[in-house]
Amino acid sequence: MDDLIRQGLTLLQGMWQRRWIGLGVAWIVGICGVIAIMRMPDVYEASARIYVDTQSVLKPLMQGLADGYFVIPYTLAHYLGSTPLATVTTDHDAFKALLRLVGRGNCYVKLAGAYETSKTGKPEYTDVARLAKELIKAAPERMIWASNWPHPSAPKDQVPDDADLLDLLLDWAPEEATRTKILVDNSAALFRFAK
Predict the structure, then answer these.
(1) Whether the Cβ atoms of residue 90 and residue 130 lie closer than 8 Å to each other
(2) pLDDT digits over 124-157, tens only?
(3) Domain that holds residue 24
(4) CA separation (Å) from 115 to 42, 76, 85, 148, 164?
(5) Do 20 and 72 belong together in one domain?
(6) Do 10 and 99 belong to one domain?
(7) Prior bond of 150 cis (ω within 30°)
(8) Domain-located, residue 49
(9) Are 102 and 156 within one domain?
(10) Backbone φ and ψ of 145, nearest 5°
């Protein structure tokens, strides 16, 4: 036991003799930490997912979005998944509200999941294609594309081919410049990727 006490006292004495070195290292680490934190950009972002059946009590929420209650960039996607919905056409009130949203300049629409809500089905998903083309025509700078891989909402025997889904964009956005916006530029702007 005396050996342990002697070793402990020796250790404490050595620490006390080198306390200024430890204090210096702590200051250097602290200053480097403060500098690193101060160099971080002051960018704060939020992401929200809104599940909306436009025929429910949530219809006023969509109207609130369209009226501009949100000023930060946000993305609307296909989050309804496998929910059975009525067919929506380009003259439907909900679609017109969506067009107003993208027209405001802070709403992005994710072009994805055509296989989840289409009533006409593959390979063209004609009903969804009409909506996608109209959205792209109205605001190509507010569209982003996604494959939705690994397609968790698709039945195992009906998982779509990602290459086929990407090929849909050739029909929806025939101009290469528009496709570049949708596939590259818009995502870079929304997610602030370095150029």
Answers:
(1) yes
(2) 888 888 889 999 999 999 999 988 888 877 788 8
(3) 2-38
(4) 39, 17, 13, 10, 11
(5) no
(6) no
(7) yes
(8) no
(9) yes
(10) -115, 150
Mean pLDDT to the nearest integer, 165-172: 91
**Is residue 140 located within the same domain as residue 171?**
yes
Contacts of 126 (CB under 8 A, 6+ apart): 118, 120
Write phi, then psi, for 109 (nearest 5 degrees): -115, 130
Is 143 found in the same domain as 108?
yes
Active-site residue (options: 54, 117, 148, 187): 148
Number of domains in the chain: 2
Give yes or no: residues 166 and 93 share one domain: yes
pTM over 0.85: no
Annotation says 148 is catalytic: yes
Q: 153 and 100 share a domain? A: yes
Domain annotation covers residue 52: no
Cα separation, 84 vs 106, in Å, equals 28
Comparing CA positions, the residue from 27, 91, 101, 117 lying closest to residue 62 is 101
- The answer for residues whose C-beta is within 8 angstroms of residue 55's C-beta and 6 or more apart is 86
Residues in a beta bridge with 144:
110
Residues 6 or more apart from 95 whose CB is under 8 A from it?
88, 89, 131, 134
Looking at the structure, tell me whether residues 25 and 69 fall in a common domain: no
> What torsion do the CA atoms of 142, 147, 150, 156 make, to the nearest 10 degrees?
120
